[in-house]
Design brief:
By secondary structure, this protein is an alpha/beta fold. It is built from 22 helices and 14 strands. The longest helix has 25 residues.
Length: 593
């Protein structure tokens, strides 16, 4: 039982005993005591004043007396108007540290593989371009949310849907056919995903030239965009692909093979992976079957031009295209098929889609159509909608080649980590291989932490220079704190035997203990909110509390043996908590740096 649980029960009992009030545990609100007041946890008593028929100060004093009398962990209290501030005893904190500091997995739960899983989809790249900064936020969120759910006992399956077909793929293929002169990753020295992305940009360049030529000849711009010869050729190629044309399919397989090899390398560098990978080319046909089912049920309708739609106007939305007039499918078609396939594959408790907020409408429509098709599990579809990532220079555009490539960004971060580490001059005792590994985990720690510390729902500005600072709310600051603690514990030779009884703790020790005590509740709240940001900011608060303690409190030079070992145990406890919370974020913490 947590402190707040025990206090809540004691307060409820006191209110009933003193005034006959039965508020229920859910209505008793405890919060951390503000720093300018003495105490650990605060109860606001104003809600009970009217029924008690006494002043706020009298109610607070009487409840404080009753709770202190019945709850050993409460050593005292003070009253500030209608605020009752409880003080938790040193004995409670020292026993907490003594009993839990050695638990390597404190606050972490084990998932039951027999439970129906939560399926988390993330990454979902297109095979016409390399992964970029936007994909990085998607991958890091998906991986971290999965780890967070696992840490709180949920069986999770991590999946990826590769958008390996469609008009965007045909654009890269057509441009390579026209302008590639047989170029390959081997002949060019480029990663395959970079090479294919190059021809996506090339297509857009020629497309814009053709549109301009048509508009200069007097054609309306919207019409020119539809009738530019190169876009008509790409559309024809997509139709040939869906008809199984051997030549188109062979080129498609070749170019996608280049891309997959490039993706795998980027995923490895980011430290993310999947339990299963789906491909749109395998799921869109199932989606087409569902479209036919919808037509048979009368849920969908066909227009005169042959296209198929779902009328959602009665639901406050609009009409949604599911099949084009030439019979080719759209994103919604394959998402219907993929959702059904995942439900069959896993019998999922929930289907979580980690997708940017520009697709909010898409997922409203997906859930609605699944429901209209008669699938009771449609309400288990959850869109984890996140904000966009921008750079100081502005938004990124794939078609114009102005994206920040994921591989280039990681390279630059590693270079910066090396430069800053060398300036600090504290890694000379490490071997060259150890130094390279350190630079990599510092770079990835900076990148991941900077992105994940922001509430997923918010847009964010990514500044590489700020992210890798060794001070402030950054990954390297927390990584360095962990390395410092591990050094202290090594020098101490580990945690010795000690008695938690009759030890007085200073303010800084209690502050660290209190943050540690909050870890289980923090993980539960973060898991329920699907928010790695709550975990990241917890790790920062813990690192700050520890550094404040470390600066003011002797550890290895403490002469009282029990007090010395208490502080070493506190160090070990913090190190474990930092390692576990950073691991949820996909961040490795070094033993030395």
């Amino acid at each position: 039982m947590t402190i707040t649980d025990a206090l809540t029960q004691a307060v409820a009992s006191a209110l009933k005993t003193l005034y006959g009030i039965e508020p229920g545990a859910a209505s008793i609100q405890l919060q951390d005591t503000r720093k300018e007041f003495a105490g650990d946890y605060t109860l606001v008593v104003f809600p009970y004043v009217k029924q008690a028929r006494k002043s706020p100060e009298a109610v607070a004093t009487e409840v404080g007396d009753e709770v202190k009398k019945n709850l050993d962990m409460v050593s005292g209290y003070n009253v500030v108007k209608g605020f009752l501030n409880f003080e938790i005893s040193d004995r409670y904190w020292t026993r907490f540290i003594h009993d839990r500091a050695g638990e390597a997995r404190f606050a972490l739960a084990d998932a039951n593989a027999a439970d129906a899983p939560v399926v988390v989809e993330y990454s979902s790249p297109n095979t016409n371009k390399p992964l970029h900064l936007g994909h990085i936020r998607n991958n890091l969120l998906g991986w971290s949310v999965s780890r967070l759910l696992e840490a709180t006992g949920t069986n999770v399956k991590k999946v990826n849907l590769v958008n390996d077909r469609g008009i965007h793929i045909c654009k890269s293929m057509l441009a390579w056919q026209r302008y590639g002169n047989g170029e390959t990753p081997e002949s060019s020295g480029m990663k395959g995903d970079h090479l294919v992305g190059k021809y996506y940009v090339e297509f857009d360049k020629h497309y814009k030239e053709q549109v301009k030529h048509l508009t200069d000849s007097g054609m309306d711009e919207e019409q020119a965009k539809k009738e530019a010869p190169i876009i008509l050729e790409a559309q024809a190629m997509l139709k040939r692909w869906e008809e199984g044309d051997k030549e188109v399919r062979t080129l498609w397989e070749t170019m996608n093979g280049w891309v997959y090899k490039g993706f795998d390398e980027t995923y490895r560098r980011l430290g993310v992976g999947f339990d299963k990978i789906y491909y749109e080319s395998n799921t869109y046909l199932l989606g087409k079957e569902l479209v036919q089912k919808g037509l048979d049920m009368g849920v969908l309708f066909r227009k005169e031009d042959g296209s198929v739609w779902c009328d959602l106007t009665a639901d406050g939305l609009d009409q949604k295209l599911l099949l084009r007039k030439d019979g080719t499918s759209v994103y919604m078609t394959q998402d219907l098929g993929t959702a059904l396939l995942r439900h069959k594959d896993f019998g999922a408790e929930r289907l979580i889609y980690v997708v940017g907020n520009e697709q909010d409408y898409h997922f409203k429509v997906l859930k609605l159509i699944l429901s209209k098709l008669g699938f009771e599990w449609a309400d288990k579809v959850y869109h984890l909608s996140y904000g966009m990532v921008e750079l100081p220079s502005g938004k990124m555009k794939s078609r114009e080649g102005t994206v920040v490539d994921a591989d280039d960004l990681i390279d630059e971060m590693e270079k910066t980590a090396e430069e800053m580490s060398r300036e600090r001059g504290k890694n000379d005792e490490l071997s060259p291989d150890e130094q390279r590994h350190l630079y990599h985990i510092l770079a990835l720690g900076a990148l991941k932490y900077f992105i994940l510390k922001v509430d997923p729902t918010k847009n964010m500005l990514f500044n590489p220079a700020e992210s890798i600072d060794f001070n402030g709310n950054t990954g390297p600051f927390i990584q360095y704190t962990h390395a410092r603690i591990r050094s202290i514990v090594r020098k101490a030779g580990g945690v010795g035997e000690w008695s938690p009884e009759s030890l007085a703790m200073n303010e800084k020790e209690r502050a660290v203990a209190k943050v540690l005590h909050a870890l289980p509740a923090t993980l539960q709240q973060a898991s329920a909110a699907h928010s790695p940001a709550m975990v990241a900011n917890y790790a920062y608060e813990l690192a700050k509390a520890f550094n404040s303690f470390y600066q003011d409190t002797p550890i290895l030079k403490e002469e009282n043996a029990d007090l010395k070992h208490l502080r070493i145990a506190l160090c070990q406890f913090v190190a474990n908590a930092l390692r576990n919370t950073m691991d949820i974020l996909g961040i490795e913490v070094p033993e030395r740096m």
